[in-house]
Amino acid sequence: MSKQTLKLLIPIAVLVILWFIPAPEGLSQNAWHFLAIFFAVVVGLIIEPVPAALVGFTGISFVALLGLIGNPKESITWALSGFSNSVIWLIFAAFMFALGYKKTGLGKRVSLIMVKYMGKSSLGLGYAVAFSDLVLAPFMPSNTARSGGSVYPVAINIPHIFDSWPDKDPRKLGAYISWVAIATTCVTSSMFLTALAPNLLAVDLIAKSTGHAISWGEWAKVMIPLMVPLFLLTPWLAYVIYPPTQKKSPEAPAWASEELKKLGPVTFKEYLMAFLATVALVLWIFGKEFGVDSTTAAISIVAIMVLTNVITWDDLISNKAAFNVLIWFSTLVAMAAGLQKVGVLTWIGANTQTMLAGLHPTALILSLIVLFFLLHYFFASVTAHVTALVPVFMTIAATLLAPEQILPFTIILAGSLGVMGIITPYGTGPSPIWYGAGYISQARWWGLGAIFGTLYLAVIILGAFIFI
């Protein structure tokens, strides 16, 4: 039996086993069957026997076909409900922003400018890589596209200048650059609502539980004060804990200067892309004051990008990654909403209230945050983590926390999604890219992940004490 076949059989086995187990007391057999499919989808998202979007698409199709949600009309309305979700289209639009950065060359230019002016020492190079990510983060919800697509192609060439390769002197510079890159993209992914697609998915699921959609500004008020010190500390801390043997790097600025010369002067399209991205950010932050929805702003600017030829219509319709995420997240939103429709979340809430009712609110909040963070060791996808756990944790929180604690708790909980990606070589999208560069061994990655993960979790806990 091939490995791929085995991976395909595992979620099917999970479904079959759970399907024939009698429903627990208080839960209908119909709801239990839906939960069985949901678990099979989550397992499929973790091990990915087929593309993740196909896993979710299969899940909603199967539920609708079996009529677990209701009659045929109700079933298809539910199955397609995620595709009308405004947050999903905001994510799709932001993928077009990322494409604009790449196609105009603006993303590469930003990274090279950082190296040119900050790269005279190895520590300076670390900060150059970090700030390259930071500048792009508010506009690129795919940290894979940001760190893997924009920062990686530039940063991975820097160690080569100093003859640092995976199989030759990796600690000279390559290992340090790799770790700083992945660690800082995890921090920036938590810093901004729009820096990580699962942040937006989590916010949508939270809105379904609380009736309140967390805005860009509300997220920023909590997460930016927590993440900025952590962002500034990360390259230095990596320099202390995992230092490069190459301390000075006078060649790097010269190399960056040559690369910038090859790019030539800043083009009109780069200026236009920077302007449109700035307008989008302003509208995301202050849009409510102007009566403009965030998604409306995003899709309008994408239309302008196409009309001004920053990207072409062919670029848009051929962007497989964007349409993959559109289908993927739309189906997961529907699956998560289905948990409420069939009564699973109500059942979980009633049972958890009984089990946790005796805990002091502070102990309850800390327990939920720590558990939510540590459970990421079992997930190879932040999206799978969100889909599986956010509805459950929100049910518990809504049942046991005071109303005034819900909003800050949900921001802190969702805000941990970015930083938790540091703990494993598979914890977030760009992790396999930087791990695959070969500069850091698996054992070393797990060790560094434990150290930095502990620090990042401590900051999240501090945030809970400050804001909740």
TrEMBL record:
It comes from the Bacteria. The keyword DNA repair does not apply. Coiled coil: none annotated. The chain crosses the membrane at residues 7-24, 30-47, 52-70, 76-101, 122-140, 176-201, 222-242, 271-287, 294-313, 325-350, 362-379, 385-402, 409-426, 446-467. It holds the Pfam family Na_sulph_symp. Its main location: membrane. It is found in: Membrane. Keywords: Membrane, Transmembrane, Transmembrane helix. It is a multi-pass membrane protein. Belongs to the SLC13A/DASS transporter (TC 2.A.47) family. DIT1 subfamily. This is Anion permease. It comes from Arcobacter lacus. The lineage of its organism: Bacteria, Pseudomonadati, Campylobacterota, Epsilonproteobacteria, Campylobacterales.
